[in-house]
Task: inverse folding
């Protein structure tokens, strides 16, 4: 039996092997399990007890003649739900302290951290890395994103900040004043848009900045991302974004497309 699926769920290789052993034998005593697993009796007792704790096995008797048997594999569904809940809890705990940790870290660090990645999966993770900072997002949009990354991936990236109460601010292109944007999705995803002509910015590059990070995504033959973690660099680009946004907001196109005129 292939053990990769069980280890992918979160079991250790020894736990996965022990669970399969229980399924194949019906029930087994720790000394027998130790021999089959090629481990010590102490480890065999520990791994079988852990399977009981995880809800994947149960103890049939007590004392020196103790034996263990596997629970129905449907118990794996409860286990994966437990692991998922624990992962979410850890993520939320990390997010809660991330801002203060970054503030203290950058107060001592004077060298930007720069990472470069290539490929759809790696670029999507670069986006998620920035989102994990739980800071408002300011980005200059390119229409090359969905064609390269896919709608589902970009939808997840675009809507995640709102689920954590964060705002998004974008500079986006429109064909003309009759394009009539649909602002309902914007409101649901906490998006505020400053409009520019779609011919003003045609580069396949997205610039995304937060209080402490700058993400540059190039959509070429395959996507590439540069992630810069530095408050000074991020702050400088945020000033440029704000200046550009204010200038574009005064242009006729943005005035025509503002929500209250929609």
Result:
């Amino acid at each position: 039996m292939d053990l990769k699926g069980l280890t992918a769920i979160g079991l250790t290789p020894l736990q996965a092997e022990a669970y399969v052993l229980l399924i194949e034998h019906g029930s087994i005593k720790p000394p027998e399990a130790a021999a089959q697993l090629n481990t010590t009796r102490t480890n065999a007792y520990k791994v079988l007890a852990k399977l009981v704790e995880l809800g994947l096995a149960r103890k049939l008797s007590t004392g020196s003649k103790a034996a263990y048997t596997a629970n129905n594999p449907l118990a794996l569904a409860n286990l994966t739900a437990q692991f998922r809940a624990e992962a979410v809890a850890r993520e939320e705990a990390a997010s809660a302290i991330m801002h203060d940790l970054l503030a203290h870290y950058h107060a001592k660090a004077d060298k930007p951290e720069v990472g470069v990645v290539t490929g759809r999966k790696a670029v999507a993770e670069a986006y998620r890395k920035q989102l994990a900072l739980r800071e408002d997002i300011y980005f200059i949009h390119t229409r090359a994103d969905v064609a390269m990354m896919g709608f589902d991936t970009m939808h997840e990236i675009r809507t995640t900040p709102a689920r954590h109460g964060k705002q998004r601010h974008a500079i986006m292109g429109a064909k003309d004043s009759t394009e009539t944007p649909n602002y309902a999705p914007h409101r649901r995803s906490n998006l505020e848009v400053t409009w520019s002509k779609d011919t003003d910015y045609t580069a396949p590059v997205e610039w995304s900045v937060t209080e402490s990070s700058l993400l540059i995504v190039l959509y070429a033959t395959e996507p590439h991302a540069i992630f810069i973690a530095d408050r000074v660099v991020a702050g400088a680009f945020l000033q440029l974004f704000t200046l550009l946004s204010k200038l574009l907001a005064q242009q006729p196109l943005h005035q025509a497309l503002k929500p209250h005129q929609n």
About this structure: Residues 173 and 198 are 4 Å apart (CA to CA). The mean pLDDT is 88. The first helix runs from residue 4 to 9. The radius of gyration is 26 Å.
